[in-house]
Amino acid sequence: MCGIMGYYSFGNTMPDKAKIENMFALLDSRGHDASGWAYIKDEILIVNKSPIRSAFMVRTKEWQELELQKIMIFHTRAATQGDIKNNSNNHPLFNKQGVCIVHNGIIYNDREIFGRDKRDGEVDSEAILTVLSSKCKGDKIKRVFQKLEGSFAFAVINKEEPDRLILVKKDNPLDLYYDEANDILYFCSERRIMQEALGLKHDAKRGFKIGEGKFHFYEMHNNHSLIINGDGVESYERYNPRKFTYRRDDYLFDRHEDEMLVECPWCLSTSRFYFGKLVNKCESCGMDITEDDVMYV
Fold this sequence. Notes:
Elements: E1 3-9, H1 17-26, E2 34-41, E3 44-50, H2 54-57, H3 61-64, E4 71-77, E5 93-94, E6 99-107, H4 110-114, H5 126-132, H6 140-147, E7 150-158, E8 165-170, E9 175-179, E10 184-188, H7 191-198, E11 203-205, E12 208-211, E13 215-219, E14 224-229, E15 232-238, E16 259-263, E17 270-274, E18 280-281, E19 288-289
Helix pairs in contact: 1-7
């Protein structure tokens, strides 16, 4: 389980840095092996990341001197593959073309994607970056859904398209808030993190909840991509994912007879489930999954 977050400021008002700092520190709960952020300034991609938790990252000189930009993406990592001491394995991940991503989830067929090609790090998330950066024509988001097996929620920025933010969701949570007063869109792996960091509370009338002030909540649908530009929503499209073939023994561990791949009833992500085990927790959201909850994929 990792955490992603970020924002798009449409107007001249930047987010309150103290609130972004708080949100980034709170995202630490989803992974504290490494953390980082990225943005584009003057057509240059700038990435800052380190194998320390975000709660410590916000105390660094780099964060204290950081001036927030119109679009920023952030990540906190729970390492499953690839040594955190090799910073190429930590997020945000980027390449020479200036494409940069933050990813929460697991890609099972990354070896298939790379083949014998040399890769910068050892993490499965690189497969997303590789597909997005391919020279093929057509919809590259569609290729991600067609080529990759696993679960993913990720954000993309690209120095060649500095006014664009791409958000993609498949089987992992991704929530959004639009701040109408300041014209800023926020996104995060967990709604509660944004609520706490932004100080949001429900208004009520006659005992009915009527909203959270000038903040409007949106939950991305599964198997969708959202492309944002300076005017707002450029596109919101649904995709058909590649049929999943379970090959856990190719990834991290040997497959066990009592191990199944299931759909979490809480966040709808894909997770391992062990029959006979006293407690099973979702690998994405951390909630308990019981045999009564199991939905096979």
